[in-house]
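quick one, 577 residues, struct below
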Amino acid sequence: MAVIRRKKRTEPAGTRWRFYTAVFLLFGVFSVLIARAAYIQVISPDAFSLQGDMRSLRSSSVAVQRGTIVDRNGRELAVSVPVETVWADPKRIAEREALADERRWQALAETFRMNRKELVSKVDDPSKRFVYLQRKVTPSEADYVKQLNIPGVYLKTESRRYYPTGEISAHLIGLTDIDGAGQEGLELLYDEHLTGTPGKRVYRKDAEGRVVEEISQTDAQQPKQLTLSIDQRVQATAYTELKKAVRYNQATSGSAVVLNVETGEVLAMVNSPSFNPNNRAELQSFRMRNRAVTDSYEPGSTMKPLVILSALENGRHKAGDSIDTSPGWLRIGGRRVSDPRNYGELSLTEVLKHSSNVGVTKIALDLGIDSLLQTYADAGFGNDTGIALLGESIGILGDRRRWSEFETATLSYGYGLSATTLQLANAYNIIANGGLKRPLTIFRQESPLPAEQVFNPDNTRAVMHMMEEVVRDGTAKAAQVPGYRIAGKTGTTRKTKATGGYGDEYVALFAGIAPVSDPKVVVVVTINEPGTDDYYGGTAAAPVFSKIVSQTMRLLNVPPDNVEDTQVRAAGFGGDE
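---
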């Protein structure tokens, strides 16, 4: 019987090696994939998440308009309005070969008053995705851009600041830049208050542009409104009269301030020359200064009522006292103080009425420098008014140990110190308010701010009646207002030169109160460097006061308190004089 022998199976050479090599390679590949996945998912997921989000996440902002600024009656002084801005996507323009249509680009350049090559140079770099072509265009320009229909050129809505009152309130309100940030005045000082915070919505879109997920939404924080104490009617009146006076007197500049006596609110603050904040192309820096708070001058004879008040406050004189000013001059320390003529014996009222330098000098020397400086300081000189406006000057009120008698004398008639138009108005407001001193404010007040009693009401009332005689039959007749009792004082000062001493340029001032029976407003007018021979406070500044007060009394419905004035006419019964 034959025996069948099975042959032993043998594996081809190298098979096992190839098997292990394949297993090792597969294991290695899977290990790399697992390690890469772990790296992406665990160790460094942010970069890839960001790339995914860039493809699917979208965000949109909810714009807020800048807050409005209104006067005390709600009239808009600054408001934001929607306008169109033209922008371009250079990459899109290159893809659509839009630059080949030269006629459309030429038309667009002419619309923006630009050279075509200059315009094209803004969009010839396809690596950019956004460039401005023209910011905040007019509605007609925006409509024309739509009609041109240039591929890659688009419109977006922005806001533009508009000032309905133009140059009338420009110094006070200020202006913004093209991006809406405050640059001057209240626009700059209260920029955060007016700005607000835009809202934001974040959502996810799929490949077809459909919203598939709302991620988050932040509500916009609306800006706040500024309600000023300004009465735009009074502001417009004051500006119109001041501008005419500056032009008529050929003056370098002028300022005027109107205060509410009872509350310390500023009803008007104007300067000339001014500027138009709606036309930024023609802005000039010298026109943009709020001179009523930044420029200080020696106040001259407008300080004399305070000298009389100081004498009454310190018990050195009584209202009925007299001063001997003969022979019309006196010599102090080798210097001479004089009046235009010898007035002889003058009552305190007549000292103001004739604006006697000799009279107030004798009163000041009798008072002493400390008492005089204290009265000036109590009236607010050498300090801020509390109004907190940009660039406010505190003026100059000397504080040193030794004063010569001549320096005391010059201080009594308004030389040797300096004050702004607003500071002078603040001092007269204290007199009008019965000696009450309260901070001035540019914002409407529901109730008056806390006040400090710095002078005796009887003494301030006596000084106010003395100043009434100045207007009735003194140096300020031009300040009279038909139907109203007016108190005030003129001032004319020579300006110092840069090289020292005094030059031939003057400042004309008038500060007054109306009406005397129940004071409602204080008005101060400053005319800087009149170019005519009538550079006196009584001829250059007082008439402006009269016109401002006359219209202000009517606008505020203040009844006449001088019914005996023959110039008063009942409504509807006026006739030939």
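Residues 61-194+201-227 form a domain with the Penicillin-binding protein 2a (Domain 2) fold (CATH 3.90.1310.10).
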